[in-house]
Specification:
This protein is of the alpha+beta class. 29% of the residues lie in helices and 22% in strands.
Length: 190
């Protein structure tokens, strides 16, 4: 009997932890606080080198998600879309973007305008993707964010996106090239 009660208690506790939240029902202040807190957690878990505090993060949304970027392109390429992503076509999300000083960090001159961007579903408050300024990132969908954290518990270094290392090469003609060793390359792990 005691085991049944304990099991029931743990089940209810787990449901409360995973309870979905509809962000559209929040006040703007409460929603922004929730989004900023969760986005910070996601960036620190999957790419701590990309977390920045010098600029205020920008929250946008809700906007519809399309695998190919727009509803029109989605229709044109429908047969090429991975089946689980068809279910979320048009689903709304919020994006939280962390910027950096492109004059101070060479990454700004290399690939993308932001350091990190986290996307969180509007209808349940669940993060589904984090992208970094190098073009690397982690998409959690269709796996839940918390389930992914549990799966990699104790071995997060396997999926952390590391900040790239840069080398510059000056050629004999005076031109300079910047070469970066991104995530997954031998040099970036040194």
């Amino acid at each position: 009997m005691r085991k049944s009660i304990l099991l029931l208690f743990l089940l209810v506790l787990q449901l409360q932890v995973y309870s979905e939240v509809n962000l559209k029902e929040f006040t703007q202040e409460a929603r922004n606080e929730y989004l900023l807190s969760l986005a910070k957690e996601v960036v620190l878990n999957f790419g701590p080198d990309y977390y920045r505090t010098e600029n205020e993060p920008v929250i946008e949304g809700p906007v519809p998600y399309y695998f190919f970027g727009s509803a029109e392109k989605e229709k044109e390429n429908w047969d090429d879309i991975y089946e689980p992503f068809k279910k979320i076509s048009g689903r709304e999300y919020y994006s939280i973007t962390y910027f950096y000083d492109s004059d101070e960090e060479p990454i700004g001159r290399i690939v993308i305008k932001y350091c990190a961007e986290v996307r969180i579903w509007a209808d349940n408050g669940e993060p589904f993707e984090v992208m970094f300024g190098t073009g690397w990132g982690v998409t959690f969908y269709p796996i839940l964010y918390r389930d992914l954290l549990k799966y990699y518990e104790g071995r997060m270094e396997e999926i952390i996106v590391k900040y790239p290392k840069y080398n510059t090469i000056e050629h004999f003609d005076g031109t300079v090239d910047t070469i970066w060793f991104g995530p997954g390359t031998k040099k970036s792990q040194e």
